[in-house]
């Protein structure tokens, strides 16, 4: 029986999520190699051993380089903090491993570029964990666009909002430091960008405005510290295809928990989506009789592949973690040389470029062309 | 019995809407002067006579100057096409009449300025028909903001969308001519601006991007004609108070029929509203226990004045035309010298300035400060 | 100019609502006789005079028989408490007036039967104020059913809920007395019954269960008094056409403000409606492609007559009071001998019979055939 | 390392679902025994071998009795058609295995009683796959009820609807035979009953009405065959605690895909839920200020245990299959002798009794007391 050997570096939430994806991918899809959970790395040998037992890995190490050197490991899941991504991903690729790295690529653009360059040279598969694009409903939106159901698209609006920075009382943390990036742009904008670029292709230019709901935040020692980046960003953009749109991201939006709202307007209809109701899409078409036209709420169902691999009945719903299992299946496709719906390091780099262009636009108060890798 | 004499120029939909407001204002509110529908003007004496009978006016004329000269007329409702507003409003004010003029003020900024100047000099009440601000739910949002229920506001998003220009087959009309204005900015942006300025005060600066879903449209003679203005506009703004926000307007948005969506984010909660469900507001506050926090859908009800004047039970719903009756009541307040929730010609002029600043920003691709009257 | 003379007995909320309908019907519809508000009756001459001035009636009386004797009155709006309906309606009909009486007809079935008998003999129009059937969305549902859009109907569910009796602290009132009727059956069931019988025809048999959330309620003197009727009722029914369904009514349902929810299931689709969002209907049809099937939310719009008489643009919304204006227009149709969508006293009597059958079923714990007039 | 040996009989959708639950339960919860997928049984040795490889089981057999005899198997998942449940479950229990059997128990009540009796005598854990009760949102509803957040409950409404029998063209199948049970009662009513009995305790009496949208259905040989059971059922009920309610189930309800709607009314508030949006609950309480009361939409979040074991952030959503993982965790609790939220064979038998009482009520057209085991 064919199998694939998995190494996992980092066992926080995303590490658990990768583990579940590896455990589920074959039973869910009923195809592909069997998964062998070979090796897990953590910050200490003790922690690694403990996590290996909980997650079901065979070997454990406190030194991630040992994992990368393990000949039984075919693919490395990297779910450590962003700052570690470049070194680990580059080392894994150079050791001949495929790499499944969580997003975003790296705090510094130069590091992301080095990662992409290494991936290109390696002949290995290197993808990023942009799992929202794997939602069967998002795929269905892609099909609707391809089929011309709403005609040529002429306008797009996207929003991504959560509220973990919404309280003025939330203490200053590393997330508020300039070293952690621009703020909402890095945390959130990359996700809608993964959707935009998947559905519509690359951006041409952007204009951004960023703001802070609170100029400073309390510190744990009773003082206050100036917030160095931006919890809110609003962006106007034009795609390379000419379609204009807006993007608003806010990590201080009370009440929003996992909102990723999309509005797509075409010449024959419109499509609406919100990740908080990830098993639904709203579709308006002009083919309905005039008196009966309206947005129809379509529930995720077997015709929306690969929903059917999870549940055979419509309207029963996938969960957030299921998206990772689909992503894992696509990674296996890519490794097998088959067509795969993934965001590889090159496309990931495009997303990083767009983010940096937005920040430059805010700084310069002008439209900025989005660079290409 | 005290009464007020009404003159009406123009009997299209808005003329009917004013008539209903005048007929309903006293029975609904149970206070104020009795309304006497004195004089109606149309483009011909015959049409005026026909409309007088249908709408219940005593006198009819094909010459609006006769109506303005009528001593029995105390207040003039002007519901003609925008281009006629300046001449009629100025003449009415100079004749000592109060004026209730539909929005926007005038195609040319200079005319709007002249209207505002005349109004200031006249000692009469001159207001514009921005009826969305009269919705009891919008008033309630104002109360929530005043009470600090969601804390200081730090971000705003607005959208106004309809679909009457969404089809590529919709023939070129006067609305697509540059002479009719900038497009979606004039048709729609003024409405959210009336809400923003009522709830939050004036704008400081704007950055705009405008686009056309279709570069040309079919003409009735079988040809095609270049579209001269913009069905879509997307705007970033900063208020004078410092609050940043976004505004998107689109008159080619399939499926949107009367969307006017507002998202207000504060330090203690959030407020959502959509005019398509004009009898509801969604409120999120952090006072609820954590496990039970969520946006609550509050239905319009008697505590939201003046809903109670229309229906004594909650959740039964007002209609679009009812907003005009409330506006009429506020106009009567203003005439009586009482505090009134109205957009007078000076505030209307601020809105026009904001629209022109947006257009200038699109042209110049830079932030534009919003002028003041 | 043709006109109709209106008399109004009772000037509470429904009296105001009738007045607005009379004032608006001609300007809104642009057809039919001019309305003359002739005479208003209240419990005292002083109150009547005060209300005449507020509502715009010419004459006022403290004796409703004077109003009925007034030769200038053509039609009498009766909006007094239910117990007064029989005497007033019968007197008005015998005096040759048309009658527009609020629902329900009368506390006692015998009185309702006498009203219907008198109406039949009078040659005059006598209708009841079941205004929910006038909603353009409800009419559109009727059209969809007539057109076979959802195929033959095989199941119906209805609910009507409000919360004015939901608190245990709400003091005992006349509404809790057996003399006021069965409770939720009289207050609410009649409304869904007006919809059912309008859309589907009469009921054949019913099975009911009634309950009290609170066995007693506080009295104003500090004591407690046993509740004599039922705030909650749940009914199974079969229509004469054979369609089975359920009806649930609850006037103690916290959070429900004006819910009147309908679910209609047919062989080709389904229709959903809720009066709390009275400007929307949800339609599911099987003609959509399988992957795109869903309930579409259709907003009230000009194709849904007579919405267009109120607003020329879709999605702007009618209000609860507008339904009364439509009802008034239908009354005028009936008076003119034209086809009219009204619930006359005979159909009203059918509704009363159904309510009494429900109560009898609860009492006898068995299916009860619904009597016919 | 402690572990548990799993046997699985039947590898259809529910077999896959059990497999995923067994694979995920330890990584998700980070506690409990490691799972060993020991043995799978199918209708032939070949199929069993194929499924063992796809699902990751060690051994395969075409004879389920071999699986039950396997000393390495500690617990048996039974996911075969209902008719096989009694023989398999009883054999497994007698062999000293714990049993996790899909619902419902058995077509014949006597068989279900035998299963419960065997389970009681076995000293082993025997539970049924009523996974809807495992939804963290349903658990949260239970907590709200326990905490008295909406006060004592006085009325309940439940609906469960799908549309797989909605088309008249759907051919006659075994599901339409009387031998398959009563129809919607067996397919659907058991689910809401699992929720009712979990949240509120057992039923006291029921009154039911059943109907068929189509008297016959096409057969594959071009003929037609009379439908022998009922796609629609409507039930009135009273709980042993005295709370009255309604239950409506329909497997021919176009547009409903996985609706399981609950309305719970209490003296201090209300709770609404619909499985089609399984990550939300709507809560209305009277503690909010009057002008701000409304149903709040609470998204599933870490405070709603065990949501946090799947995702650490709110609003990201669990899927239908995740409920099975939670059920598996509860089964392990039961096996360990800890408190467990499960429906064991005794409680399952109560549900079967309720279903049979409903059918008897329909037949006898009278209230039927629900028997106890």
Describe the structure.
Four copies of one chain form a homotetramer. By secondary structure, chain A is α/β, with parallel strands linked by helices. Chain A folds into two domains: 3-131, NAD(P)-binding Rossmann-like Domain (Rossmann fold, 3-Layer(aba) Sandwich), CATH 3.40.50.720; 134-316 and 343-368, Dihydrodipicolinate Reductase, domain 2 (2-Layer Sandwich), CATH 3.30.360. The first copy, chain A, has helices at 13-29, 45-55, 64-69, 85-94, 109-122, 136-147, 184-200, 307-310, 320-335, 345-364; strands at 3-9, 34-41, 59-61, 75-78, 98-101, 126-128, 153-161, 203-211, 216-218, 224-226, 232-239, 244-250, 259-266, 269-274, 280-285, 295-299, 343-344, 368-369. In chain A, the strands form three sheets. The first copy, chain A, has a nine-stranded mixed sheet. Chain A has a seven-stranded mixed sheet with strand order 3-2-1-4-5-6-17, with helices on both faces. In chain A, helix 4 (85-94) packs parallel to helix 5 and helix 5 (109-122) packs antiparallel against helix 10 (345-364). The first copy, chain A, is globular and about 65 Å long. Chains in contact: A-B, A-C, A-D, B-C, B-D, C-D. Strand 16 of chain B pairs antiparallel with strand 16 (295-299) of chain D.
Main traits of this protein?
alpha/beta; 2 domains; 10 helices; homotetramer; Dihydrodipicolinate Reductase, domain 2; 18 strands; Rossmann fold
In short:
The structure is a homotetramer of 373-residue chains. With 373 residues, chain A is α/β, with parallel strands linked by helices.
């Amino acid at each position: 029986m064919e199998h694939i050997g998995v190494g996992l570096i980092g066992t926080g939430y995303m590490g658990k999520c990768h583990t579940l994806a590896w455990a589920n991918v074959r039973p869910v899809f009923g195809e592909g190699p069997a998964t062998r959970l070979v090796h897990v790395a953590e910050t200490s040998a003790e922690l690694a051993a403990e996590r290996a037992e909980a997650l079901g890995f065979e070997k454990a190490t406190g030194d991630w380089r040992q994992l990368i050197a393990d000949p039984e490991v075919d693919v490395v899941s990297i779910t450590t903090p962003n700052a570690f991504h470049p070194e680990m991903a580059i080392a894994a690729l150079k050791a001949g491993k495929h790499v499944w790295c969580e997003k975003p690529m790296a705090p510094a653009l130069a590091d992301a570029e080095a990662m992409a360059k290494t991936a290109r040279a390696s002949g290995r598969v290197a993808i990023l964990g942009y799992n929202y694009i794997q939602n069967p409903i998002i795929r269905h939106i892609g099909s609707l666009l391809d089929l011309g159901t709403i005609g040529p698209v002429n306008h797009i609006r996207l929003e991504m909002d959560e509220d973990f920075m919404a309280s003025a009382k939330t203490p200053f943390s590393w997330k508020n430091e300039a070293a952690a990036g621009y703020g909402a742009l890095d945390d959130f904008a990359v996700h809608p960008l993964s959707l935009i670029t998947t559905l519509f292709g690359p951006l041409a230019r952007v204009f951004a405005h960023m703001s802070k709901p609170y100029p400073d935040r309390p510190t744990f020692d009773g003082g206050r510290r100036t917030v160095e980046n931006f919890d809110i960003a609003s962006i106007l953009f034009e795609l390379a295809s000419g379609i204009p749109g807006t993007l608003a991201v806010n990590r201080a939006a009370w009440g929003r928990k996992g909102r990723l709202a999309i509005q797509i307007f075409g010449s024959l209809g419109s499509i609406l989506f919100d990740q908080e109701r990830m098993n639904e899409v709203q579709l308006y078409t002009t083919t309905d009789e005039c008196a009966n036209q309206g947005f129809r709420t379509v529930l995720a169902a077997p015709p929306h592949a690969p929903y059917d691999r999870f549940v055979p009945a419509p309207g029963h719903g996938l969960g957030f973690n299921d998206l990772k299992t689909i992503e894992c299946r696509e990674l296996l496709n890519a490794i097998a040389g088959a067509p795969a719906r993934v965001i590889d390091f090159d496309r990931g780099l495009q997303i990083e470029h767009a983010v940096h262009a937005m920040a430059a636009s805010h700084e310069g108060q002008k439209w900025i062309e989005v660079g290409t890798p």
